[in-house]
Amino acid sequence: MKVDRPENLDSEARWRTAGDRIQTLLDSCATGGAAAQERARELVREVVGLYGAGLERIMLLAQDGPGPGLAERLATDDLVASLLLVHGLHPHDLHRRVSDALDRVRPYLGSHGGDVDLLEVTDDGVVRLAFTGSCKSCPSSAVTLELAVQDAVRAAAPEVSSIEVVAAESAPGPAVIPAESLLAHVHSTSSTWYPVPELAELAPGEVAGFLVSDVPLLVCRIGDLPLAYRDHCPVCDGSLAGARLRETLLGCPRCGTQFDVIHAGAGADGTHLEPLPLLVRDGVPSVALAEPMGAPA
Length: 297
Hints:
The protein is α+β, with helices and mostly antiparallel strands. It has nine helices and 13 strands.
């Protein structure tokens, strides 16, 4: 017969009365006025909704079968993992979570001719990375990849204190590139991710235009990989609407310039399309748009 320890009984009793305590706290917010009480109620609804979605996801994952594989499925699901991290219950250590996050984003990095190496994760939460590949020759592409990597790492490991970029061994110049120099553009902008579920419907080889937060985008799909660019030709200064994709080359319908979409949109004479981070976040294709700090919303 199982006998509960006193601390287990105390914990169970506490959770059984949690609803009453929450209602008491909500009622106390009424002293701050109707607006304060409504904000408190909205906060509770958001928290309950988040955990409800997490429980629903756990039940769906559990339907795939119990056993050792279930814990791994829970740990690698974005929504469930975020809740486990909040309560310190995630089974993977910091290094493993950072490494797994980089593995998930590598196909996107490769689409822009780049890659990233995990050099070190220190005890105080500093992650040191080295970017490699042809993306370094295109500033807009480099910034795009840095934004994608930062988002992936911080989503998987929110306790990371900082992300430092170190020059690849084969690169000339100093061994360490100051983060404030290399990531100056990233640090001067705030990035917002916008879910665009329609991107999942793109067929291989298809090109489509989208308007996301009043920003015109052109999205094409190479195999299973969707790629996003601003709808702007740097050669003729016109729109790319109507562009066609031939293998990996996107042709501007106005000036005829060909851009290699799997190499950061490289065109003739050093021109580049402007790539934008496009990742699957919580199962939904999402695009990141950056605004200068202090810019009007």
